Amino acid sequence: MVLRTTRSGAVFSPYVHGEHEALFDHQAITSPFHFDAEPQLQHDHLLRQAHSLNESDPDAYYLDPDDDDDGHPGSVSSEDSDMEVSEEEDNATVSPNQSIRELFSHLSNKQRRKRLRRFLKRFGVSDSEARAMRFVPKIHNAPFANTLKRVSQKRRRESKPILVDVDLESRPVSTSGWLGAPSKVKPAAAKEVRELVDERGFKFINWDGKTTHPLVDGCGRVIGLLAGEPRDTATKHHSKLWTEAVDNLADAMRDVRAKLKPRAVNPSHRRGTFGNATVGIGFGNGRQQPMNFKQDGKYAKLYRDLCDGPAARVAHYQASMFRTYAPRIHQYYSTHMEKLLNRLPFLHHNFKRSVFAACTFNLGPRTITLPHLDRSNLAFGWCAITALGNFNPDLGGYFVIWELGLVIRFPPGATILIPSAILTHSNLPIAEGEERLSFTQFTAGCLLRYIHNGFMTDKELLAKATKDQLEEREEERASRWLNGLGLFSQLNEFS
User: Fold this and answer.
1) How far is CA 328 from each of CA 134, 147, 449, rounded to the nearest angstrom?
2) How far, in whole angstroms, is CA 412 from its chain's centroid?
3) Considering the chain, what is the average pLDDT of its residues?
4) Which of 130, 264, 449, 474 could bond to 260 as cystine, CB 3.0-4.6 Å?
5) Can you give the pLDDT at residue 286?
6) Burial (CB count <10 Å: 0-12, 13-18, 19+), residue 9
7) Calpha distance 242→373 (Å, rounded)
8) By mean pLDDT, which of 13-17, 341-345, 364-368, 467-471 is the weakest?
9) DSSP secondary structure string, 242-309?
10) Distance of CA 492 to CAs 54, 220, 228, 489, Å?
11) Alpha carbon of 256 to those of 261, 302, 305: distances in Å?
């Protein structure tokens, strides 16, 4: 009998020596591993076996430290709270030809993942070591088809699309296909829904802000998403916990706004007249390499505390819906962000379960944006927006997407995702005395271009490139925009 002890010396959780390695091999192990070997050899062997098992069937055994049942962070499964451990599982004494499938065949996939994590810890494999093996990645970058939960797939199938009339292929982008380009049409700002619907022929979407609706063009391409809110998996109703999360974020943003200098509270800029701050990783504007956005002195900690605290829940939900409805674009972001953080480990990534490089806190008190494009974002990428604050969504705050001819009711707590570099968007004014804030996530196109160039600027790349490399680069530039559109999901993929 081997007894485990805590750092204080307390003894707990006895377990029996056995040939446990069979638990970690998807294929039966024919030659048993003996636990009288060197401790480090035991440790390394288990890591290799667990990693092998994870790759063999990632849907059943993928380890995610913050796993939830409906594909949205923060949900709690009532199934797990009452989960009991049988004596057979606790002892885990199995024959060398027995697989983990046989031992845990009566459990759900999520419970199997929890069991596997517990076995790793039992043999001294920490979460950080597992993460170093890409076993529990910092960024959720496992293949989409193997990680999306069945309940998320069901919700996606059940979501009702909104058809829009737009030709994305003709939207203006930069010659390289990385960034948006100025629109030839400059829409005049509107103040009322009636003005847009009756006079300009816009379509009004009376959205409840809770249900999910993909925006689908005439080619069946999913070009955006009314993501709504997460649901409580136990009751299938919209979660009160989400309401608390967005209220906590709004309260924290108000506290930050109260500490700002007066000139920073209501500055005028091209998007409107309201205070804002961008946090995360950016590139361009004189930077020679990717850097974290800089805030003045004491404000840096305020925004970092927002990211580490109340903003995380909202950011993770935005990223979860991005992964569910635009998996190929999400994977594109994930792959590039992983390369970036491995190459430049001094960079601070905002949220561990979000692939977006940066976020913006629009602090209000009246965050009403003018018609604009976020041209510096990736041209074929998506931007996530969550409305916050105290305002009546039937009187104002409507979200307008000009090229789609849509006016969308956008209540506090609701989330929308769109390709903001190519679709002009804005808000309608809220009523007097009301307050509106918002939280957004995005990734700059020039940041992804830098990573794609092999961590070089265009200037550095051109100076080093051979003739063949230059020809290949020009071919990529000519096809990048259409190839990027090819990453968008097709609605029929969700059936």
Assistant:
1) 20, 13, 17
2) 20
3) 78
4) 264
5) 75
6) exposed
7) 29
8) 13-17
9) HHHHHHHHHHHHHHHHHHS-HHHHS-EETTEESEEEEEEEE--TT-SS-EEPP--TTHHHHHHHHHHT
10) 29, 7, 21, 9
11) 10, 7, 10
Tens-digit pLDDT profile for residues 392-428? 999 999 999 999 999 999 999 999 999 999 999 999 9
Tell me if residue 251 falls in helix, strand or coil: helix
> Distance between CA 245 and CA 249 in Å, rounded?
6
By three-state DSSP, how is residue 314 classified? helix
Cβ–Cβ under 8 Å, residues 80 and 16 = no
CA distance linking residue 174 with residue 370, whole number of Å = 22
Tokens encoding 446: 């020039």
Residues 6+ apart with CB under 8 A from 294: 300
Q: How far apart are CA 252 and CA 240, in angstroms?
A: 18
Encoding tokens for residue 205?
Answer: 């979407």
Q: Provide the pLDDT for residue 142.
A: 37
**Which tokens in the block code for residue 310?**
């109340």
CA angle 405, 411, 415 (to 5 degrees): 75
Separation CA 349–CA 240 (nearest Å):
28
CB neighbours of 96 closer than 8 A, spacing ≥ 6? 19, 21, 22, 28, 29, 30, 31, 32
pLDDT tens track for 319-364: 999 999 999 999 999 999 999 999 999 999 999 999 999 999 999 8
User: Rounded distance, CA 448 to CA 284, Å?
Assistant: 11
- Among positive and negative, which fits the CA dihedral 250, 251, 256, 258? positive
d(CA 334, CA 342): 12
Q: Rounded to an integer, what distance in angstroms lies between the CA atom of residue 303 and that of residue 489?
A: 34
Supply the pLDDT for residue 263.
Answer: 65
Q: How many residues does the chain have?
A: 495
The predicted structure's pLDDT at residue 18: 40
**Contact (CB, 8 A) for 489 and 221:** yes
Does residue 487 surpass a pLDDT of 90?
yes
- Is the bond preceding residue 310 a cis peptide, omega within 30 degrees? no
Cβ-contact 444, 293 below 8 angstroms: no
* SS3 call for 324: helix
∠ CA 320-445-271, rounded to 5°: 85
Cβ distance 354 to 348 under 8 Å?
no
- Percent of the chain at pLDDT above 90? 55
Cite the DSSP H helix spans in 326-444. 327-343
Neighbouring C-beta atoms of residue 465, cutoff 10 Å: 15
